[in-house]
Amino acid sequence: MQLARQKLNRIWEIGMVLFSLSFIGCLATLVYQHAKVQHLTLAAGSPTGEGYIVCAALKTVTERHHPEIRITLLETGGTVENLKLMADGRAAMAVAQADVLAGPSARIVAILYDDTFQLLTRREKQMEGFPGLKGKRIALPRTGGQFQSFLRVADHFGLQESDFQFVGSSDVTADEAFSQGRADAIFRVRALGNPTIQRLVQSGKFQLVRIDHAAAMKINQPAFDPTVIPAGAYSGDPAIPDQDLPSIAVHRTLLANASVDDETVRAITGALIDDRQEIAREIPEQVAAVRLLLAHVRRPEARTEFGPALHPGAVKFYDKDKPSFILAHADYIGLILTVLVMISSWVWELRAWLQRQQKNIADEYSNRVITLMNAAQQAESREALQQIRGDLLGVLTAAVGDLDSDKLSEESFHSFRAILQIGLEAVRDSWNNLQVAGHST
Length: 441
Description:
441 residues, alpha/beta, D-Maltodextrin-Binding Protein, domain 2, Methane Monooxygenase Hydroxylase, Chain G, domain 1, ten-stranded mixed β-sheet, 14 helices, 17% strand
């Protein structure tokens, strides 16, 4: 019994030590994570693109609300370069068209808005559709997601890269070539209302051209969504375009590498979704039309076999309104906690009662020793002292028995034994005193 009680106490002490260390460790981890500055690089594309403009404002708002996060924006050539930078570890996050295959480490954070395939030609060319581009000069850099999207559309119509002449090494130089007449058409994957496209079509020199068969292309390109460029999208009077034009839409997405800290991604997702009005205020007035795109920021649809999975940090934000395991099972957890508290209280009270009982027994033994010690000091014969000594040893025997049966704790027994030792010394002193007195006589 005594050994079992010692083991139980030992387990209790070890458990409390482990709990304390775990609590301190968790607290230290939280403090460290909060104090640690996370530096992220975000590949955002061309500085004139809507994605870059939105991300620049997102950076400002995120850093304002989360000083522990620092974001560096990279100017790039577009989706392909963005994804390569992220795959190589040179960027933690990236803006990308959804129709360009992301690497295995890519995880989606949010859909920023929808891009539309927009094809413009010079009015005098009178092209009715995409097949009419064969053999023409296209203002389009041969890099980036736009170029890949163009080739996918061309492939549907039986055309190849060699069927076109591409002009411009960047969006800027391609725009200049088209404006100056050195290109017959320009192809852009941009949000409706894009300022550059608006300037071109409102000049009266260029016109938007329809892109048919979007639903058919979606069979082989799941990221393609049929859409229309509505009449009057770029001007109401006169209407530009003057009729609804069929086209293709793809999501512009914000991606993060799977290795990026979950809490960091959660914070950025929260800023993007919850603070979008504040983000809109950070977008410069000269590109105010981009502010409207923030209304389209949303959670990605359920993952398909072609798209990346949601980043766990984004999942934590999107599922914030779902009840946690504790809340969902509050009744059962409450019952368990109640039972545990009752059991703990009962065990604690039982332990306290046992300690009181043990102390009472120890006090009884101590009082008996003190009584015998006083009797030894007053004894007038050796026979009386021998009797007292025997009684003291009898008390010791009884105490040892109670210690073995767990009626007396080791601590109480040690205290009692110290008093017993004093009692035995008192008997010895009285014995010696009687012996000296006998010799004197």
